[in-house]
Design goal:
The chain is of the alpha+beta class. The protein is built from eleven helices and twelve strands.
């Protein structure tokens, strides 16, 4: 039974449970207040009756002492017993009127004996057979004479009973009103929580598998007080974070699909070339041996191209998982010397692009020299590939407090504003019509940015017609000359 009640209580709504709890607490308060009030009233009325008994017995004792009778000193429904004490034993006198004594006088005699032994007034409450509850008082009239008077407590009991009835009815109505109106007030106060619950249910029914899905619902309103407002703000902030996470996830899925499509396209071209040259090689090897070397060279070139593409993809994958396995081999190296080596290689491989090198004193920092050299090579190659022959290219090493910079500048046509935010995306090309042989795979800048980030740095781009500047910023703990 108790377990069923507990389960039913747990299934109740919060407002109902709070209202019931408030009602139970109020019931306890009402019970304590009612008990205290009833006890006080009974004690007060009993004290009044004791005072009335004492005053009445004072007059009755004088009448007995002077006239030997109680005539004119009696009260309606009271009982009176006069005892003569001899050798410590009280003997009941013959009553003036038979109605002055109850049917059973044992309680009167016992109280008279107690008064004789105690030599002082005594009070007791007894239930007299056939008469009800009475308040008895014994006092000494004169030596050897004891008067016992008994006053009915029926009026006190009736008064206390009426008080209890009034309290029960009043408290019951107050408790009912408290539960009913308290439930309404609690329901109104908890309405913002119900609204947030409805919002949560609406979000739960929303399809989050849609691409770039966003949650259309928010908890609004200003009711409920500071606590509810704080909860509402936290709830809406959580929804904003979920929206941002969904947007990031959708963007990541879109980039992954684009990456897979571009990678498949990039690999398909050299694979088709390898397959075609393999077929030609099979035919040429049997009929024209001089063609064999030419086709083998083409096969090797396409295989090398695929190898470079796969190496770049593998490097990007390792950089994406850098927290598991770092692809860098850090050591102290001279950035100025490394840029000089890249410049010499560029002059040898790209004689149609005049190169200017501006470097200063040695700049030693903690880095992977092979990877930073790869970054500089990629930036220089990007400047040569995407500008016409004769375009001037410059590379500069400069230092600022806490940063070492490598600036690669070309005087080409620049990068359109719409493409600047995406030039570091994988497989992205500014010129969509550019051939693979001429424009590369579209991974150079993506690899460069990932390598620089793995070193804790960044790459900045500033482009306008006639000038494109890529700036590699690497953390540097040394103290170098002021930037020039």
């Amino acid at each position: 039974m108790i377990a069923r009640l507990r389960r039913a209580y747990r299934r109740m709504r919060l407002g109902t449970r709070l209202a019931l709890g408030l009602g139970a607490l109020s019931l306890v308060v009402f019970a304590v207040v009612g008990t205290a009030l009833t006890t006080y009233m009974r004690d007060y009325l009993s004290a009044q009756l004791d005072t009335q008994l004492a005053q009445a017995q004072l007059a009755q004792s004088k009448s007995i002492a002077d006239y030997g009778t109680l005539s004119g000193k009696k009260y309606y429904s009271w009982f009176y017993a006069v005892y003569d004490v001899s050798d410590g034993r009280p003997e009941l006198r013959r009553p003036e009127d038979p109605v002055d004594l109850p049917k059973d006088v044992d309680d009167f005699t016992a109280l008279a004996s107690a008064q004789t032994a105690a030599h002082r007034e005594l009070l007791r409450t007894e239930h007299l057979k056939g008469a009800g509850t009475y308040r008895l008082r014994a006092c000494e009239v004169e030596p050897g004479v004891v008067l016992v008077s008994a006053a009915p407590m029926e009026d006190i009991e009736d008064t206390v009973g009426q008080l209890i009835t009034i309290q029960v009815v009043t408290f019951a109505l107050a408790l009912l009103a408290l539960v009913v109106f308290g439930r309404r007030m609690l329901r109104r106060g908890l309405k913002p929580l119900s609204d947030m619950a409805s919002t949560a249910h609406g979000i739960a029914s929303h399809d989050l598998t849609e691409s770039a899905a966003r949650l259309p619902l928010r908890a609004d309103g200003r009711d409920g007080g500071p606590e509810v407002d704080e909860l509402r703000t936290a709830f809406n902030t959580m929804l904003e974070h979920i929206d941002d996470s969904l947007a990031v996830r959708a963007e990541a899925e879109q980039r992954l699909r684009r990456f897979v499509a571009d990678a498949s396209h990039e690999l398909r071209t050299p694979l088709m070339s390898v397959r075609g040259y393999a077929d030609l090689f099979q035919y040429a090897a049997a009929n024209a041996p001089e063609e064999r070397e030419r086709h083998l060279a083409r096969l090797r070139a396409e295989a090398a191209r695929m190898g470079v593409l796969l190496d770049d993809l593998l490097l990007l994958a390792r950089l994406d998982a850098a927290e598991v396995e770092t692809p860098l081999r850090l050591e102290d190296a001279d950035l100025t010397d490394l840029v000089g080596q890249a410049a010499d290689a560029f002059r040898a491989g790209r004689p149609d692009h005049p190169l200017t090198v501006r470097t200063g004193p040695p700049v030693r920092l903690r880095m992977d020299p092979l990877r930073i050299r790869q970054v500089v090579d990629n930036l220089l190659t990007n400047a040569a590939v995407h500008t016409p022959a004769g375009t001037k290219v410059s590379v500069e090493v400069r230092v600022t407090p806490g940063t070492a910079e490598v600036r690669v500048t070309d005087t080409g046509p620049g990068i359109p504003a719409d493409d600047r935010d995406r030039v570091f995306d994988r497989f992205y090309r500014v010129d969509k019509a550019r051939s693979r042989d001429r424009g590369g795979s579209g991974l150079g800048l993506a690899v460069a940015q990932s390598l620089v980030r793995a070193h804790g740095g960044r790459i900045d781009l500033n482009s306008e017609p006639g000038s494109t500047v890529f700036t590699v910023c690497l953390p540097w703990n040394g103290v170098g000359p002021a930037a020039r």
